[in-house]
Amino acid sequence: MPTGNLSGLALCRKTLWAVSDREDGTVYRLDTSTPNWQATAVTFKAPPVPPSGLPVRLRMSSWAAAFVRGGDLDFEGISCDARGNQYLVSESHVAVLQIPVSGEPKWLTLDPTLVSQARASHLLLHFNALFEGLTVNLAGDRLWLAAERQQRGLLAVRKRPLSWSCEGRCVLLAEGGAEALPVQIPRARHMPRDFADLAWFDGKLFTLERNAYRICRRDADTAAVERCWSFAAEALLPARRYDAPYGLTEALSVDAEGAWVGTDNNQWARADGERRPVVWRFAAPAGGWSAAP
């Protein structure tokens, strides 16, 4: 991945795929058979993006950021259905691109009230704090989106003949507030609650909560928290720390055996000198992901 900036992971038909928020026309197929994984670029051409419904101020901020750093589409998540169709979420345009197994990429027609309902719930109000992750169920007929922070939230749409509909209510969860960073971080302080990515597995939603260094299982219909697991003890070992004032995990994929968690290190070097994006593999909890507390 020449630009790094790993921003999404998805396990599709036993193959792990990745996306970077600095590359508009590439997804990466990961060869995980060796200790140092190889990323093979698979290119595509996205059609023009549909109007987002965001105010001019946010659209201009995103345009300026893309001009400086690259990545106009700012892909922040990737998911796939059982057929192997891929779905990428564009943060800057609050849009979802489908890359079908056969045929040309296309932008999904999302419910026209999605953005307005989100903003009425105090989501999608700030630059660089828009859609940060997505996931789709295996049937490919239901899609969830994560609003990143200030406030953070979860939204859902369902596939209908002409569009992806909110079925009355788009927003499952909207919440603000802050929480303390893990104690392993020097000079730990409070940071806004956030979502960095989403995964769907066995009928449940899983949220990657970056600043808290945890994965939480949630009800797919209500977004209510059912159980959380911290990975701070492993991710924040002294040699693995970054000199960054916030968490850097950005990508999540969950299967029966465990979770893949990827870092978007933004060119930061770890304490041990590693500058490449890193993907961790955490084993599933005892009793599996659906186990009761």
TrEMBL record:
Domain (Phytase-like): residue spans on this chain: 2-150
Pfam families to which the protein is assigned, alphabetical: Phytase-like
Record InterPro entries: Phytase-like_dom
Protein name from the UniProt record: Esterase-like activity of phytase family protein
Organism whose genome encodes this protein: Pseudomonas baltica
Taxonomic placement: Bacteria, Pseudomonadati, Pseudomonadota, Gammaproteobacteria, Pseudomonadales
